[in-house]
């Protein structure tokens, strides 16, 4: 038992070192001061927690201004640390939020696709449907039908 616990602890330490090395490598590659990277990553976490992504007028420029930094830094950090473009990052946050809300709130399921699009920060039904399909592989109308059938 002792040996097993030691192996687990050793594996955990190796994982931590691996994550540290991976982040260190990212920091070296990105060419931005580590303190600035950490500040922007923290602000991105706060942005996610406060659901700032639901603002349909959010752009890389507006978020950069609110973070007191430039859009090149935000773009690079999202690309490297979130492993997606800024638009993909925002759309995925919106769709993940939409999925959670639609599963929990029966009233939302009665909304039109256009109304859902507005509710979740998109400017129109087409962009919402496209982002939803890209994230889930299905159209929102099909997802809503499945939710209703599962609740019968």
Plain-language structure description:
- The chain is an all-alpha fold and 152 residues long.
- It folds into two domains: 1-30; 43-152, Arc Repressor Mutant, subunit A.
- Helix content is 74%, strand content 0%.
- The chain contains eight helices and no strands.
- The protein has helices at residues 2-30, 34-49, 60-66, 71-82, 86-104, 113-119, 125-136, 140-150.
- α3 (60-66) crosses α4 and α5 packs across α7 (125-136).
- The termini are far apart.
- The mean pLDDT is 89.
Q: What Rg is obtained from the alpha carbons, in whole angstroms?
A: 20 Å
Shape, per Cα inertia axes: globular
Number of helices: 8
Please report the distance between the alpha carbons of the first and last residues.
49 Å
Quickly give the structural class.
mainly alpha
Summarize the structure.
The protein is mainly α and 152 residues long. It is built from 8 helices and no strands.
Question: How do the helices and strands line up, and which of them pair or pack?
Answer:
Elements: H1 2-30, H2 34-49, H3 60-66, H4 71-82, H5 86-104, H6 113-119, H7 125-136, H8 140-150
Helix pairs in contact: 3-4, 5-7, 6-7
Key words describing this protein structure:
152 residues, mainly alpha, Arc Repressor Mutant, subunit A, 8 helices
């Amino acid at each position: 038992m002792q040996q097993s616990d030691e192996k687990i602890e050793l594996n955990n330490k190796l994982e931590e070192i691996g994550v540290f090395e991976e982040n260190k490598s990212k920091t070296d590659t990105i060419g931005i001061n580590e303190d600035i990277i950490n500040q922007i990553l923290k602000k991105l976490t706060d942005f996610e927690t406060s659901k700032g992504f639901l603002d349909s007028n959010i752009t890389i420029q507006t978020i950069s201004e609110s973070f007191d930094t430039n859009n090149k830094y935000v773009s690079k950090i999202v690309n490297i640390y979130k492993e997606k473009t800024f638009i993909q990052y925002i759309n995925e946050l919106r769709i993940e939020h939409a999925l959670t809300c639609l599963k929990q709130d029966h009233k939302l399921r009665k909304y039109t696709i256009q109304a859902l699009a507005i509710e979740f920060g998109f400017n129109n039904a087409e962009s919402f449907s496209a982002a939803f399909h890209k994230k889930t592989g299905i159209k929102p109308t099909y997802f809503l039908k499945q939710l209703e059938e599962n609740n019968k």
